[in-house]
Design a protein that fits this description.
392 residues, alpha+beta, 3 domains, six-stranded antiparallel β-sheet, six-stranded mixed β-sheet, globular, binds zinc ion
Length: 392
């Protein structure tokens, strides 16, 4: 049997959790893959990020994976439909490698601009020569599927020894013991404190006090640095959202550079204004987690007096009944026809990740909203049964 036949006949695995790691997948060994046999598995291409996150949250060796190399076939290029043709190739590498900045370590010639510091262990993302890496391929034959090829699944250096995490004795007391970056939760918390005007000094003082109270650092978030918070503060201060004096140009420039966070976009046309739907990956996760069999509410008041265009926030409620904004819609005019289109896009985005996801109800705070359209929308789009709660 040919190798590609074997690969393409493997089941596409999609564990029902928000993120998943290699431990939750069944791996196949396919013969004839180079000299050594690599482990391969198929997952939906839309869930590659979930796999990368799950793999980073490895309990025995927490880390982060970055894109070390990526090749994409240009969209307009013509190609012969070969069975092994590749649309996209992405090489993910453990962020503690591949270079080795430890004493006596090897750094690739293209990266020799790095000058070792006196105390390299203090660097937040010190490279320690980790060889752990995997490849993601998107095949022309099955573009909705990602083929994962795990070349090296152990977090070891070239000598085969643990080079970070609890098993590496030399990393004790440094960030290399934990993941190389702070968690997304803490990052967002720091950002929101900075946005409401809390100073860098206050954030760091509160942080050090709480770490001290618990008797010293014991996870990656405890190692939050002054430098990191200051850098976030500077990037907020310097950011400008008026990229061009023409709003249409400005918006399309912003959309171009934030594609991962835009789930719906229609620019100004002759008859209609623009509609922009924004959702970060974290927000999508919260929507999936707390929106499933829960309520989604639309809040049109939040921040309206500060911005040039009205913004509508969609929120879900966590277990403490606190509202979490899970998406924003910005448009000069809210019309029911537009609402149907962006809701559809949002629904499709959620269903790519979780086909079973279902809302229990939709709350609208704006009495002028087209109630009939929203009722139809909730009934058909979200498959809500008539006895379920629809509050408008
Ligand atoms: Zn590693």
């Amino acid at each position: 049997m040919a190798r590609w036949d074997q690969i393409l006949s493997l089941p596409v695995q999609s564990p029902p959790t928000l993120e998943f790691s290699s431990a939750e997948l069944v791996w196949s060994k396919v013969e004839g893959w180079r000299d050594n046999i690599d482990r391969v598995a198929l997952i939906p291409f839309a869930r590659v990020d979930d796999f990368v996150r799950g793999e980073s949250a490895n309990k025995e060796c927490p880390t982060r994976f970055h894109v070390e190399a990526r090749r994409r076939r240009p969209a307009e290029s013509t190609y012969k439909p070969k069975v092994d043709g590749i649309l996209e190739y992405i090489l993910y590498w453990c962020s503690f490698g591949p270079d080795d900045h430890r004493k006596g370590g090897v750094v690739r010639p293209s990266r020799t601009t790095y000058v070792p510091k006196k105390k390299p262990s203090g660097r937040p993302n010190t490279k320690r020569g980790c060889t752990c890496h995997f490849i993601v391929k998107r095949l022309i034959a099955e573009p909705s599927v990602a083929l994962i090829i795990y070349n090296q699944d152990k977090h070891v250096d070239k000598k085969g020894l643990p080079c970070h995490g609890p098993q590496d004795k030399k990393s004790a007391g440094t960030r290399a013991m934990y993941a190389p970056y702070i968690s997304e939760d803490l990052r967002l918390r720091v950002l929101s404190l900075l946005y409401v005007g809390v100073s860098v000094e206050t954030i760091m003082q509160r942080h050090s006090e709480s770490v001290e109270r618990q008797g010293g650092p014991c996870n990656r978030d405890d190692l939050l640095t002054h430098r990191y918070v200051r850098r976030q503060e500077r990037s907020i201060r310097r950011s400008t959202y008026e990229l061009d004096t023409d709003d249409a140009v400005s918006i399309s420039m912003w959309v171009e550079s934030h594609q991962n966070q835009v789930f719906f976009y229609e620019n100004f046309s002759d008859s209609d204004p623009f509609v922009l739907g924004i959702q970060t990956e974290w927000q999508l996760q919260q929507l999936i987690r707390f929106g499933n069999h829960g309520l989604l509410a639309s809040d049109s008041k939040f921040g309206t007096n500060k911005l040039k265009y009205p913004i509508r926030s969609l929120v879900v409620f966590n277990s403490d009944n606190k509202a979490i904004p899970v998406a924003w819609i910005i448009t000069p005019r809210f019309a029911s026809g537009d609402t149907l289109r962006w809701m559809r896009a949002l629904y499709d985005r959620v269903h790519m990740k979780d086909p079973k996801w279902k809302l229990a109800g939709f709350i609208v705070d704006d009495p002028s909203a087209d109630i009939l359209a929203i009722r139809l929308l909730t009934l058909f789009l979200f498959h809500i049964h008539l006895h379920d709660q629809v509050i408008v």
